[in-house]
Design a protein that fits this description.
Structural class: alpha/beta
Order of helices and strands: HEEHEHEHEHEH
Strand order of the largest sheet: 1-6-5-2-3-4
Helix content: 40-55%
Largest sheet: 6 strands, parallel
Number of strands: 6
Length: about 220
Amino acid sequence: MLKVIQHAWKRILLIGVLAVVAMIWGCEWRIESVARQRCLDAVEGVPEAPVAVVLGAAPRLADGRVNLFFRPRLEAAARLFKAGKVKALIVSGDNGSKDYDEPTEMKRVLIELGVPEGKIVCDFAGFRTLDSIVRAKEVFGQSRLIVVSQRFHNERAVYLARASGVEAWGLNAKDVPVALSLKTFLREKLACVKAVLDVNVLHTQPKFLGEKVAVPLE
């Protein structure tokens, strides 16, 4: 009897694992089918848009190590702006506490890279990718934009943008090898599932919206 019960539990566990894998694969496929052709590696291939939304990152990780995703993302955004593809940049990230301020750090580096300060707008409530995208539309008034991040992040952001009625493309920053970013790689698997659920089941809204903010496009 005990062996029968153990065998049944093994089957249940296997079915559960297969179901999780299938769900993750299905969500990734859904996102890629919507966004892959819109996420480009070269600035030259990116269409013009009023703004680019640079998705949030901190210069250093919690343990003090350099965040390998940070500077390539900003370098890509600076190239995009200097190529005349966009007229302004929205740096959207987490500023959930006084000691943690992604947008200000992103703006500082963009200025170092030659982007005029007056063409950079900070979104301090980009706590999640969904928040950054929806706020770009609802708070900053943009219905056509370029997203700047690494490819895996851009695909999810473009998927969320299209679901929100925003015409969006992605400029892919230099990626980080999986061996150096395994935690991010695994977390992205779950983020894909969450994105599909947010759009199709939960109808999730940003944590904050607020008053309209003008973007300097002249």
